[in-house]
C-alpha cells in the first residue's frame, strides 16, 4: 500500500475553497511517515509564510513572490494583532482554526478565504502588474494613510481590499488648498470589473491619479499596460 496525496470530496462548488485549504494544509505540514489523516494542528508562522509564498507563485505563475512587508501585514491579519513587531511574529505559531475556521474580526470570511480570493484575482487579472511590482497589495489601510499623507497631490498605490474577497482598490492622496491631505480609497474592482475594462485603462481614465508611490509618473509605470483606444463609431 502507499499513501496518496490528500483528496477532499465535495458535493457543491461552494465547498471548493475549504477543500483547497484542507489540501494545502495537509500537503504543506503533514509528516511523510505519519499515521494516516494525522496532521499538525499548529505550525510555525515561518513555515506558513513559506507555504503562502510558494502557493502564490505557483498559482499566479510569477517569479515575484511575497516580500517581508507582505508577511508582516498577513501576520497582523491572521493573528489580529497590530502592536507586535515583525520579530515577534516570527516566533509564533498559527493554528488551523486561525487559518480557515475563525471568521476575521468584522468580516464574514476566514483568512484563507480572503487570501484565496486575492490569489484568484491576481491570477486572472493582475499577473503582469504584480510581476512588474506595480501593486503593493498586502498593506493595511492605516499604513497606506501613513505613507501617502506626506506625498504630493495625486500620489497613489494599489492594495488588496480588506472588506471584500477578491478586490483591488486604489488609494490616492488629495491635498486641499490649505495644504491639508486626505487619503481616499476608490471602491474595489473585482475580477468581473477588470474583465470589462483593465486596471491599466481604469488608472488612465482617472485624472486625479498622477504618480505611483513613491514618485513614478503613472504613464511611465502603467503605459505598457494601456490598451489602444478604439476610435470612430466604437
Explain this structure.
There is one protein chain. The chain is an alpha+beta fold and 234 residues long. The protein has one domain (13-225): Orthogonal Bundle (Recoverin, domain 1), CATH 1.10.238. Helices cover 42% and strands 12% of the residues. It contains ten helices and seven strands. A five-stranded mixed sheet has the order 5-4-3-6-7. A two-stranded antiparallel sheet has the order 1-2. The chain is globular. The model has no long low-confidence stretch (mean pLDDT 85).
What is the structure about, briefly put?
42% of the residues lie in helices and 12% in strands. With 234 residues, it is an alpha+beta fold. The model has no long low-confidence stretch (mean pLDDT 85).
List its traits:
two-stranded antiparallel ribbon, single chain, Recoverin, domain 1, 10 helices, alpha+beta, 42% helix, 7 strands, 234 residues
Shape: globular
Residue share in helix: 40-55%
Distance between the first and last residues' Cα: 63 Å
Structural class: alpha+beta
Radius of gyration: 20 Å
Q: What's the mean pLDDT score?
A: 85
Family: Belongs to the transcription factor STAT family.
GO molecular function: DNA binding; DNA-binding transcription factor activity
Protein name: STAT6 protein
Subcellular location: Cytoplasm; Nucleus
Amino acid at each position: 500500500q502507499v499513501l496518496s496525496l490528500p483528496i477532499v470530496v465535495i458535493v457543491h462548488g461552494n465547498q471548493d475553497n475549504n477543500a483547497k485549504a484542507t489540501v494545502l494544509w495537509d500537503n504543506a505540514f503533514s509528516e511523510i511517515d505519519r499515521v494516516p489523516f494525522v496532521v499538525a494542528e499548529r505550525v510555525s508562522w515561518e513555515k506558513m509564510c513559506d507555504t503562502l509564498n510558494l502557493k502564490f507563485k505557483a498559482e499566479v505563475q510569477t517569479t515575484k513572490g511575497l516580500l517581508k512587508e507582505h508577511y508582516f501585514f498577513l501576520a497582523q491579519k491572521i493573528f489580529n494583532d497590530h502592536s507586535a513587531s515583525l520579530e515577534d511574529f516570527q516566533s509564533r505559531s498559527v493554528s488551523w482554526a486561525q487559518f480557515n475556521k475563525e471568521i476575521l474580526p468584522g468580516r464574514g470570511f476566514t483568512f484563507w478565504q480572503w487570501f484565496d480570493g486575492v490569489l484568484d484575482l491576481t491570477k486572472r487579472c493582475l499577473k503582469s502588474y504584480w510581476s512588474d511590482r506595480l501593486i503593493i497589495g498586502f498593506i493595511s489601510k492605516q499604513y497606506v494613510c501613513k505613507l501617502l499623507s506626506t506625498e504630493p497631490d495625486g500620489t497613489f498605490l494599489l492594495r488588496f481590499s480588506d472588506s471584500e474577497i477578491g478586490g483591488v482598490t486604489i488609494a490616492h492622496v488629495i491635498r486641499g488648498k490649505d495644504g491639508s491631505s486626505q487619503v481616499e480609497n476608490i471602491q474595489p474592482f473585482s475580477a468581473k470589473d477588470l474583465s470589462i475594462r483593465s486596471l491599466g485603462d481604469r488608472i488612465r481614465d482617472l485624472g486625479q491619479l498622477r504618480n505611483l508611490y513613491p514618485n513614478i509618473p503613472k504613464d511611465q509605470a502603467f503605459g505598457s499596460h494601456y490598451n489602444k483606444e478604439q476610435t470612430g463609431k466604437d
